[in-house]
Amino acid sequence: QVQLVESGGGLVQAGDSLRLSCAVSGRTFSLYTMGWFRQGPGKEREFVALITWHGGSTHYVESVKGRFTISRDNAKNTMYLQMNSLKPEDTAVYYCAGRATLTSDFSYWGQGTQVTVSS
Questions:
Q1: Cα separation of 116 and 29, whole Å?
Q2: How far is Cα 22 from Cα 31, in angstroms, rounded to an integer?
Q3: C-alpha–C-alpha distance, residues 116 and 105, integer Å
Q4: Dihedral sign (CA 75, 76, 78, 82)
Q5: What is the pLDDT along the chain (119 residues), one digit of tens a residue?
Q6: How far is Cα 98 from Cα 4, in angstroms, rounded to an integer?
Q7: Helical ranges in 1-119 per DSSP H
């Protein structure tokens, strides 16, 4: 099993930056891909970014390209999401997630951290 714990959310103003962290514990060697998802008020959960745990390849949803950066520190078993130039529409609960293969569902989820961006 893999356990994920997010931190770093908060209330910021538009244009500010915030860095989310996801602490990973358990069978980390079983991870292939880690990702960030978010769910805004009244919206469905959506994909934000992903990174391969061992290779470091990344992929982003179009709306955050150039503003958000996903990274991981394998030595610290931690994944990050650096969010710059935040917009009110980025307001959401952010979740980190993990999966064991390239094509499997994300089966490991954290509890989420709230990010609120005021205009």
A1: 33
A2: 14
A3: 28
A4: negative
A5: 899 999 999 999 999 999 999 999 988 877 889 999 999 999 999 999 999 988 789 999 999 999 999 999 989 999 999 999 999 999 999 999 999 887 889 999 999 999 999 99
A6: 8
A7: none
